[in-house]
Amino acid sequence: MSLNLKSQIANLESGEYECLANLNIYDSPECTRLATQAQAGRHLRITSNNVEMRHSTSVQVCLCEDDYPGWLSFVDLVLLQTATVPYQAKSFSESQIKKLLPEVIAFTHKAMQQANYYLWGGTVGPNYDCSGLMQAAFRSVGICLPRDAYQQEDFTQSIDLALLTPGDLVFFGTPQKATHVGLYLGDGYYIHSSGKDKGRNGIGIDILSEQGDEVSQSYYQQLRGAGRVVKSYESKGVRG
Question: For residues 229 and 20, what is the distance between their CA atoms, to the nearest angstrom?
């Protein structure tokens, strides 16, 4: 570890910081497996205490927009600056959200047109996981969603599949838990990012039908239900 980095760590304090670049957030202190990403401009809280920081190669953080925890490598600390203004979520009414849904849908189409692949933990383009694409699409118009598919299912207003309208979320998985999510486009179609083990490796459009291709059929068999975004997630502001 360089003297410069040691000095920076020694002066680092728990608190709120702004990301100066896109950052990878990992699911363990070893920083080997991606959990999520933080786009430049997002705020995070460092929740490790000074003693923990002196005996590790990473710091524990919590992203402000979605309260998502993870670990940031020491080498990325130079890409943080102390937040001068604390993060504050913007509130949206259901009618305001409805007006913004065409832009949310347009974001996903634009993302699909770029070369991309499915990236577990990806929330920053061009490579996304399923819930990361949903989070990024809504965030593009200022609306915050929780990070994971099952969290998004719990957060949205449950609706009957017969009442689906463009901009609703459709959820897939097991009877116990949502493990996949897509954005409904209308006429039975939805857009999502799916892995190569499902017959695709990136963003594509499928149909909610047993008559679709192999990929569509596979997901249709796992269909759990649908949800409507009627509010923006507000951070609980949990601190370590």
Answer: 29
The DSSP code for 199 is T
More confident residue, 236 or 229: 229
| Model confidence pLDDT, tens digit, residues 125-152 | 999 999 999 999 999 999 999 999 999 9
Tell me phi and psi for residue 226, to 5 degrees: -140, 160
Within 10 A of 136 (CB to CB), how many other CB atoms are there? 22
CB-CB contact of 26 with 35 (8 Å): yes
Contact of 39 with 22, CB cutoff 8 Å = yes
Q: Report the pLDDT value the prediction gives residue 236, as an integer from 0 to 100.
A: 78
For the beta sheet containing 23-26, the strands, ordered from the edge strand earlier in sequence to the opposite edge, are 34-38, 23-26, 69-73, 58-63, 43-46, 15-19, 80-82
- Calculate the CA 52 to chain-centre distance: 27
- Give the angle subtended at the CA of 82 by the CAs of 76 and 88, to the nearest 5°: 110
**Mean of pLDDT values over 20-38:** 97
9 pLDDT more than 90? no
| Neighbour tally for 137: CB within 10 Å | 25
